[in-house]
Amino acid sequence: MAKNPIINKNNNDINEHINYRQPMYLARSSSILYEILNKTLNCSLKKKDRQLWQSYLDIGLQQHLWPDQFYTMAKTNDFDLCKQYVMNYIENNKKLLNHCQFELTKQEQQFQTCPMIELSFEQMEQRLQELVNRERKYLSKRNNDKLIELIKFKDDISEKQLLTTISASPIMSNQ
Fold it and tell me: What's this model's pTM, rounded to 2 decimal places?
């Protein structure tokens, strides 16, 4: 797409007379911005993890069964102890999330007093794009992994139910 020099000159003239407020992300150094985004994303990932474990708990309670890996993690064969293990895991995750949010707020307040390092718009845009692409790849892989875990969890429950059904049904003999 070719740029029209007349339109470009007119836009530059207009932009020189307008005093736009600079967005906060452009007023921070890239390392500070990266830290803030990284902490925010880690906290949001913890929330997703908590939601996944809440799904595990809901399904386990509904089916009154746990996959073998949960019994192994809880180091027990007792349904109620395994349920308590999952509930404790969720509660610890909530506490960790709250701590993350507190630390993020505290650090955000500290960063407001930091000196600013000037970067060109192009440098900032390039670094932000790199960060977004990297995090997008990471989140996509992590979400796919969590979906696979949830499907495996449901498959394990179905397998146990089928085994229980087969074990309980009378054997039919050929006449």
Answer: 0.46
